[in-house]
Amino acid sequence: VKEAFNEGFAIARISYRLAQQMRRIRHHRFVFGGGLLVPIGKIPMSMIFPKELRERSWAKLMEDCAGHPRGRAAAMAAYEGRRLSLGHVEVSSLVASFGRTLAPVEAAIAAVDHPYYLDAVDPGLAALSGLWSVARSAALMPEGKMRLSISQENFLQKSGLAIDAVKKVAADVRAEKVG
Do residues 35 and 63 touch, judged by C-beta distance below 8 A? Predict the structure, then answer.
């Protein structure tokens, strides 16, 4: 629970600061709250996929992804849905659908691993999802080892953000002591 909260808090803070540097972002009022919610689906995943499932357990997936050369976040994005048939961001979007506050951006939360899926449907939601995707990578990757996917690089180009700005915001967030 603590790990999901800390991750969500970092994603929310990074997203919020990057959004302030962007030219324009629709759905701006959801930037912080949605960022908090992106990893919340990790909490019920250990109950849905308990250790007794061995290779199909959440714990085994986390263990296998921990040592991945591209980082845990990239490995989770690549293997979670294949191995477990359900991803934590899908669970997070389900949580968003239960309330009125974040329900309008449920699709953006669900598409965090592939924000470009929303380009043709709602470019504003695609941008929000792209922002959270980049912020999540920035929050989870060790400093100096941040690698972005092609879709994340495309998002940065479209939004007018530079990778150096993302790295600086992430470093600033990491350096701050909260609470």
Answer: no
Q: Tell me the C-alpha distance between 104 and 27, whole Å.
A: 9
CA nearest 18: which of 152, 169, 157? Answer: 169
In the structure encoding, which two tokens stand for residue 77, read together? 């994005």
The Cα-based distances of 139 to 97, 104, 163, 165 in angstroms read 25, 24, 13, 13
Q: How many residues does the chain have?
A: 179
DSSP single-letter state for residue 160: T
Cβ partners under 8 Å of residue 7, min gap 6: 38, 39, 42, 136, 139, 140
3-state secondary structure (DSSP) of residue 177: coil
Beta carbons of 112 and 132 less than 8 angstroms apart: yes
pLDDT in tens, 94-113: 999 998 899 999 999 999 98
* Residue of 176, 134, 105 lying closest to 19 (CA atoms): 134
Beta strands in 82-151 (DSSP E): none
85 vs 83: CA distance, rounded Å: 6
- Tell whether the model's pLDDT for residue 71 goes beyond 80: no
